[in-house]
Amino acid sequence: MLEYVRVRDKETGHHVSILREQLDANPDAWQELKQDATYADGSPLPPKHKTSVSAEAEKQSGNQAANSKE
């Protein structure tokens, strides 16, 4: 049976569900997390992409400033 684990990609910071074999094959690339890696039916959870809060806020601030100048 396939065993999925939830990990953080050390390079990007994204959280993904991968097979235990992948983690064991390249442990330097991943940090294992304590979170569930699958839904109740056994299918892997979707990735959670790391975003920069300040970059997201800047985008919103920029849009608001542009809209207020109109």
Descriptive overview:
The protein has helices at 20-25, 53-69; strands spanning 4-9, 15-19, 30-32. With 70 residues, the chain is an alpha+beta fold. It has one domain. The protein has a three-stranded antiparallel sheet with strand order 2-1-3. The longest helix is centred in the C-terminal third of the chain and has 17 residues, at 53-69. The radius of gyration is 18 Å and the shape is flat. The model has no long low-confidence stretch (mean pLDDT 86).
Structure summary:
This protein has 70 residues and is of the alpha+beta class. The protein has helices at 20-25, 53-69; strands spanning 4-9, 15-19, 30-32.
Write the layout of secondary structure elements.
Elements: E1 4-9, E2 15-19, H1 20-25, E3 30-32, H2 53-69
Antiparallel strand pairs: 1-2, 1-3
Biggest β-sheet description: 3 strands, antiparallel
Give the overall shape, derived from the CA principal axes. flat
Count of helical stretches: 2
Helix coverage percent: 25-40%
Structural class, from secondary structure content?
alpha+beta
Q: Going across the biggest sheet, name each strand in turn.
A: 2-1-3
State Rg. Answer: 18 Å
Mean pLDDT: 86
In quaternary terms, these chains amount to single chain
Low-confidence stretches: none
Number of domains: 1
